[in-house]
Amino acid sequence: MDDYDKEQLIRDLIRDEGLSLKIYECPAGKLTIGVGRNLEDRGISEDEAGYLLKNDIVGVLDDLDRNISWWRVLGQPQRLALANMCFNLGWPRLSRFKNMLAALKAGDTEKAASEALDSLWAEQVGARAKRIADQMRVGE
Questions:
Q1: Strand partners, 20
Q2: What pLDDT digit, counting tens, does each position of 47-105 carry?
Q3: How many Å apart are CA 9 and CA 11, to the nearest integer?
Q4: Cα(82)–Cα(87) distance, integer angstroms
Q5: How many CA atoms lie within 13 A of 131 on its CB side?
Q6: Is residue 80 classed exposed, middle or buried when 0-12, 13-18 and 19+ CB atoms within 10 A define those classes?
Q7: pLDDT given at position 3
Q8: What gap in Å lies between CA 108 and CA 127, rounded to an integer?
Q9: Which of 68, 134, 65, 64 is nearest to 106 (CA)?
Q10: Cα–Cα distance for residue pair 110/100, rounded to 1 Å
Q11: pLDDT, mean of residues 16-20
């Protein structure tokens, strides 16, 4: 299979399929992304999911560093809890947890956990919110 020019094939496929960084519906009605990747029939591989996850984690850490640089001085359990919430909510929504963030910054992990649980988010994600609040509170 090395008897073809892979780079030329890539250029041809991008020209013919297009390149979309967001999901779109192709002419056959299938949800598609990238260069003609049919997400409905083909999906992604576990390796691809891991690659995307690692990139998303980098984005979460960058968001936290950019917006609340003090988060790096928290204990590891609290940093993990905050990163998990940010991954789930995104920074814009996490930033609305003003009382929780203020409590974490002040070192009041009990109040921070209580504030996290007193939210629509906690109702929506259920057991995940309890795990994150417990981690935030006592580091478990």
A1: 34
A2: 999 999 999 999 999 999 999 999 999 999 999 999 999 999 999 999 999 999 999 99
A3: 5
A4: 9
A5: 7
A6: middle
A7: 67
A8: 22
A9: 68
A10: 10
A11: 96
